[in-house]
Amino acid sequence: METLYLLIPISVVLVFLIALAFWWSLRSGQFDDMEGPAYRILMDDDRSSPAANSGDDRQDGAPPADLRDS
Questions:
Q1: Span 39-66, pLDDT tens digits
Q2: Residue 68, C-beta contacts closer than 8 angstroms, at least 6 positions apart
Q3: Per-residue pLDDT tens over the stretch 3-40
Q4: Domain extents for the chain?
Q5: Could you give the dihedral angle defined by the CA atoms of residues 59, 60, 62 and 64, in that order, rounded to the nearest 10 degrees?
Q6: Half-sphere exposure of 21 toward its Cβ, with a 13 Å CA cutoff?
């Protein structure tokens, strides 16, 4: 019974220290997403605007003049 008087406060302090270490790790960015930025660079989310394609006047889908057979 005397050992419980010692072990219970020690376990409560240990749980408190573990919770404090976990809280610190969350706040300091230890669990930040490391793979997200690497995959984000591969995602093609650039949309081509109609103004960017204004130099292309072909409406029929024909190849450009420099690629046509002469």
A1: 878 877 666 666 555 555 556 666 666 6
A2: 62
A3: 999 999 999 999 999 999 999 999 998 888 878 877 87
A4: 1-28
A5: -10
A6: 6
